[in-house]
Predict the 3D structure of the following.
Amino acid sequence: MKTKYPMLDGGPFFRANDFVVLWRRLIRKAKKMEGNAAMVDVSDNQKDGRFDFDEYPVCESCGEPNSVEVLKAIDGNRIVQCENCGLWFTSPRVNEQKWINWLLEDNERNREFTENRLRYGFALSRNIQLAFSFWWRLLRTRRQKKLRSLFALHGGDVQRIFDVGCGCGYLIKAAQDLGIQASGNDLNRYAVERIRKLFGFDVHVGLLPSLFDKGFVEKSHYDVVYMNDYIEHTYHPKKDLDAAFGMLRPGGLIYISTFCVDSERYKRLGSSWDMLMWNHCFHFSSESLKKLVTDVGFDISMCNVNDDKGSVELVARKP
Ligand SMILES: [Zn+2]
């Protein structure tokens, strides 16, 4: 029997409605709507509640307290640049403990995003209309292609991978299907408990540095630590990278993918770019990301900016 969760049984190969989805996607592309918050209803993004923005962080990368405003995003999010090292970050932001508690809570937002991800491959309800019926097959193929290229770059025998901010476990499932041991963590407690129950994944609730310090994730144990669309969300990317460094075996790789502000996409969309909205704490350039990673002790193996998507992919090795 077919389930409503394609990750369980692979899901359909094709449905007639996929033609409609394709049409919607082509129109968005032709109108250059992708990522342009000025052209879509972004009220979905406000479902995270209406918190006060009253926390003014110092620079995470260098500790400098002084910063200057760079821009205000379309939702009013204020982005500043460190006066010393040039890192871009959101300030003021939502109080860290309030935000953590919100993610750990069993609330409407966490349920909705999780169920959407599990059924359609998208978190936001407005994007469900863009989901192909075969989204999981497509996503798994892409993740596995990425994994194979990482394994080739690694050069050795890759046995264990850890996904930081694993969400609904897409990467974990894709890796397991390749015969790799995969585990992960997330702050969305509802999601973690859901995928533990549905798929039996080895996943933890909590922030990486605290899981590492408490011994829930092992030292010098993993071959690859994976951070896809994660580092822009965390309040302490440097602490996360420190923990990742400690978890990796010598020669192990860290993979980071995030949006970047030294891309053509940023130049084109500027403050209308949906990536610059409030629930992203950091807005890296390829240079500021490289600096953070090398400061922790990694050697950069590869760093590529995709101008069209506005993303940067970085792979670095623990010596
Ligand atoms: Zn700085």
Remarks:
- Residues 16-51+81-317 form a domain with the Rossmann fold fold (CATH 3.40.50.150).
